[in-house]
Write a structure and sequence with these properties.
Elements: H1 2-26, H2 29-49, H3 57-69, H4 76-97, H5 101-141, H6 144-155, E1 167-168, H7 169-178, H8 186-196, H9 205-208, E2 218-219, H10 221-229
Antiparallel strand pairs: 1-2
């Protein structure tokens, strides 16, 4: 799905360039500035989801900036809503201000894809959130404290885990499957961790023990307790 996000972000940037080129020569500076803001948002999304140069420092810096200041884009539902907003705003601006048939055609085709992808992403995000809610409910009903202790003791050969050990992504996935009745994919675990953990992803790597990959993710007992005993709905 990351490739689709990257394609949608590139379409936003391309349409902004096509529309902005005509607007700036027509003297519609206010509408041109509107497209500039949308273009910048599209560039940020494209950089975060690009499949190229995964270890490029600038890309990592942009992703940390997004995690710190635009955290909504780290949620599946939030990203989907963002694509709907950007696609709708861009389509409206280009349709109302452009005179060329080709530019309007590109606006309709490109932005319908962006809006459609955003809608599908929101639906997927809500469905994943519902799965997480069902898992939380069963964990609560099965006595979370007992479940947590059993899961952690499996990894230590029956011994009590050391204080502050934390639950790995594999243990969390197994716990949700065995005691919560829900199966999560590997790609879902990081999103769940970002939603539940107070160990924010934008902190320097030295402070968060490189918890960027699923292998290094640790769910603290305190964060899991806060999630299970909270009656609210966690939106992924």
């Amino acid at each position: 799905m990351t490739t689709a996000f990257f394609a949608a972000a590139c379409l936003i940037v391309l349409n902004c360039f096509l529309g902005g080129w005509e607007l700036i020569f027509n003297g519609s500076l206010v509408d041109w500035m509107n497209l500039c803001y949308i273009c910048i948002a599209g560039m940020v999304l494209a950089i975060c989801d690009t499949p190229f140069y995964p270890n490029f420092k600038f890309r990592e810096d942009v992703k940390l900036f997004v995690c710190k200041y635009i955290n909504i884009l780290t949620r599946v539902t939030g990203k989907g809503a963002t694509f709907i907003f950007l696609g709708s705003a861009l389509l409206s601006a280009m349709w109302a201000n452009e005179s060329g048939g080709f530019v309007k055609f590109c606006a309709v085709i490109g932005n319908i894809f962006v809006i459609g992808l955003g809608g599908v992403t929101v639906v997927v995000g809500v469905m994943k959130s519902q799965k997480l809610l069902k898992a939380k409910t069963l964990l609560y009903n099965n006595n979370f404290e007992t479940v947590y202790d059993q899961v952690m003791r499996k990894a230590t050969g029956g011994q009590a885990p050391p204080p502050g050990a934390g639950m790995t992504s594999v243990q969390f996935k197994d716990m949700c499957q065995e005691y919560g009745g829900q199966v999560f994919e590997e790609m879902d675990i990081k999103g769940i961790w970002q939603a539940l953990s107070t160990q924010t992803a934008w902190r320097p790597r030295s402070q968060q023990n490189n918890q960027g990959s699923n292998d290094m993710i640790k769910f603290s007992k305190e964060d899991l307790q806060a999630w299970v005993y909270d009656k609210g709905f966690t939106l992924l």
